[in-house]
Amino acid sequence: MPAVLLTLAPVLVAVFLMISGNGLLNTLVPLKAAMIGFSQQDIGFVGSAYFLGMFAGTWMTPAIVRRAGHTRAFAAYAAIVAVATLGFPVASHLIAWCLLRAAIGFCFAGLYTIVESWISSKADSGNRGRLLAFYNVVNFMGSAFGQQWLRIADPKSFQLFSATAAFVMLSLLPMAMTRAEPPPLPPKGRLVLGAMLRAAPIGIVGITLVGLANGTFWSLAPAYIEKMGLGPTTVASFMTAVIVASALSPYPIGKLSDRIDRRYVIAAASALAMIAEILLAVMGQATPIALYVAGFFLGTMQPVIYPLITAHVFDRMGTEKGVAISSTLLFLYCAGAVVGPLLASSLMEHFGQAMLFVHNAGAHLLILAFVVWRIIVRPAPQRVEPAPTNPPPTA
Q: What pLDDT sits at residue 14?
């Protein structure tokens, strides 16, 4: 394990820098949009545009990587992200922001695919779980670090967008200098929706609903806190509380799911996430401390549902079509994440800000109900081998 981590150190450093920039941008875009007068529905359109771009990226990335190779494709994606990021403070029109956000989503589909395939290629059945858990920690540490820059500069200024672009461009350095062999070029593949529906319908229904909830949260939560009048520092602290919890919970919960039927753990995590969202919905004008506590509670459960369902799907389908299965799951996640912000923002416009968490609680209730039904009608799966536990994409 230490030897593998040493080999992958440049890639993990690149991940930290890349996610530091994206973590900052994920909060900065809806926060500034709220400050300059975008409506809640407009902010939802911008959030959905990111996942629409990522949705397209899941189709195009294998062909781009096959053509350019992992390192050059990474450099091209990072350059586009940096340029698009610098466009936000220049253009203040809704259509321009949607196009910029879609371009960034398209590129991050590629960046995630490249680094995750690089890490997975160095893993084996004896260290895969620990290696991907370590990647998970680096991912969320980078995102938490990025949030703290909101304390340093005014979100209305050009500075934070420049910092985001700088972080993404700095991630090129370790990737360009690494001596680690890149993974094999991806073969041509296709989605396996029909096979997944037959073997693991929780993958189809559950991941789509996870995208509906997670895409909504990452797209709209910063603007929700801003509209409460608590300021950018509170926004940064709330998002940090969620992200820190997201880094702490996957390993112990994943370890528990290795010992019992994963569907029980998926159901429990969905129920607890729903409870946290109901608490946030009924809080109203809560104190910052109460928000941080509820956010931390939500962060321990909301992000783990994606890897738990992924592991369940691999239990049912095996690892022979690992790339096709992972691409199908990301495709479903993005489909839900495109719809979620649009639906939730419309509900918020008509029925109030609390509908953000009512919407997400409803999504987790549906996951809970479907998983319980599947537990009743089908016995526990026979595990094939330990499955990958990649973290879910963030906005």
A: 93
In three-state form (DSSP H/G/I as H, E/B as E, the rest C), the secondary structure along 60-71 is HHHHHHHHHCHH
Task: Provide the angle, in degrees to the nearest 10, between the axes of the packed helices 2-35 and 40-68.
Answer: 150
**Closest among 251, 142, 139, 180 to 9, alpha carbons compared:** 180
185 three-state secondary structure:
coil
Q: Look over the chain and give the mean of its residue pLDDT values, rounded to a whole number.
A: 85
Q: Are the beta carbons of 43 and 356 closer than 8 angstroms?
A: no
pLDDT score recorded for residue 66: 83
- Give me the amino acid identity at 179: R
Report the percent of the chain where pLDDT is more than 70.
Answer: 89
For the record, the structure tokens of 324 come out as: 């096709």
318: alpha, beta or left, given left = phi > 0 and alpha = psi -120 to 50?
left
Sign of CA dihedral 136, 81, 330, 114: negative
The upper half-sphere exposure of residue 4, i.e. CA atoms within 13 Å in the direction of its Cβ, equals 16
pTM of this structure? 0.78
| CA atoms lying within 13 Å on the CB side of residue 8 | 24
Structural domain boundaries in the chain: 2-179+188-377
CATH no. of 2-179+188-377: 1.20.1250.20
**Residue holding tokens 């781009």?**
64
* 284 HSE (CA, 13 A, CB side): 0
Contact 38, 91 (CB under 8 A): no
pLDDT tens-digit map of 19-28 = 999 999 998 9
pLDDT of 128 strictly over 70: no
